[in-house]
Amino acid sequence: MRTDDEIIRLCQKGRSEGFSLLLAAYQDRVYRRAYSFLRNREDALDATQDVFLRVVQAIGHFRTGSPIWPWLRQVTTNTCLNRIRTASARPQTVPLDEARDQASAAYDPESEALATWDREWLERALDELPPLQRMAVVLRHREGLSYDEIARTMNLPLGTVKTYLFRARKTLREAMEQENGAG
Amino acid sequence: MHCVDDSLLQMLVEGTLDQPVEDLVRIHLRACPECRRKAAGYKQLMWDLSQEAKKETPPELDAMHDALLTAWKDARQAERQRETVRRSLVPAWAGYSLLWTRHAMAPVQSMGSVVSKLGGKLLEQLTARRVSRRGGGGRR
User: Which residues does chain B have within 8 Å of residue A53's beta carbon, measured at their own beta carbons?
Assistant: First the structure.
């Protein structure tokens, strides 16, 4: 398996082999990250294509010696942010409240164990978060970025990032309790 | 008893609270089952969030790989063509600029030669005067 540096050097020499290796190494990862931001298969596919078309233009300026993923993650985040902003007027999917309504209120508040959390349900709950809150959650908990790094990546003030994360996690915890109560 | 704010519980689970605040929150948690329940919920949530489900990637990505590779080859081809044009333009530009320099600078050069001729004559006259003055002084 080629290292990031070798892949970049091949690309910068104009070798197709290099770009093919780059796609093989990162195309799935870019798609998965785009999907986790956009929660829509077609949008994620389009975003993945846009990301690599930008890479085609910009790879000549990439500094060798740096890992590729942080750069690709930034390009993916920017591409998805643009899509989220232009699609903000589009109607959202089924609201979370509707899912919550299906849950009974028979939750036992004494119980500290919340072991029946269904991962698929978590994915659906993530679908219902406002897109920017979801993006902050993904960057924090799946990419492991610090609050400062998220603020830089999303080009937002630190306070806004903290608010997004706080609200998103509160919403998800409450939804999780409802779900477990219903179980 | 006032319950702890949710943001503090989240920070406790993330381990980002200052020690004195963390101590206070932990003291409260010992006495408050409601806040313990919430803190346990955040702990579970954050663990679940970090576990990304391995999703199947769509088959369209294979076709996209080929399309992107074609885009790459086209871009490199265009780049090579631009480079060829740029290289062929450099000698042409250099020749043109040399020609331009000769033509545009000709009046300046001729003016320069006039000035230098005049200057030379003036210098000759001044030198002649100085010599004659010295010569005159010597005779006195």
Answer: 68, 71
For residue A67, the tally of other CB atoms under 10 A from its CB is: 11
Mean pLDDT highest for which of A130-144, B49-63, B100-114?
Answer: A130-144
Q: Could you tell me the residue ranges of all domains in chain A?
A: 4-86, 96-182
pLDDT digits (tens, 9 = 90+) for A12-56: 888 999 999 999 999 999 999 999 999 999 999 999 999 999 999
Domain boundaries, chain B: 1-51, 60-104
Q: Distance, in angstroms, between A129 CA and closest chain B CA?
A: 13
Which CATH architecture group holds B1-51?
Orthogonal Bundle (1.10)
Say which residues have a Cβ less than 8 Å from residue B40's Cβ, sequence separation at least 6: A112, A113, A114
Domain A4-86 fold: Rna Polymerase Sigma Factor; Chain: A (1.10.1740)
Question: Domain A96-182: which topology?
Answer: Arc Repressor Mutant, subunit A (1.10.10)
CA distance A55 to chain B (A): 9
Instruction: Give the residue among A91, A10, A19, A24 at the shortest CA–CA distance from A54.
Output: A19
Give the C-alpha separation, B119 to B117, whole Å.
Answer: 5
**What is the ipTM metric for this complex?**
0.74
Whether residues A23 and B69 touch (CB distance < 8 A) is answered with yes
Interface of A with B in 116-155 (CB under 8 A): 117, 119-120, 122-123, 137, 141-142, 144
A168 touches chain B (CB under 8 A): no
A-B contacts at Cβ under 8 angstroms: 102
* pLDDT tens readout for residues B76-112: 888 888 888 887 777 666 777 777 777 777 776 677 6
Q: Do A14 and B67 touch (CB under 8 A)?
A: no
pLDDT higher than 80, residue B140: no
pLDDT, tens digit, for every residue of A80-132? 999 998 876 454 444 444 333 333 333 343 444 444 456 778 888 999 999 99
Is the distance from CB of A59 to CB of A147 less than 8 angstroms? no
Nearest to A18 by CA among A50, A49, A62: A62
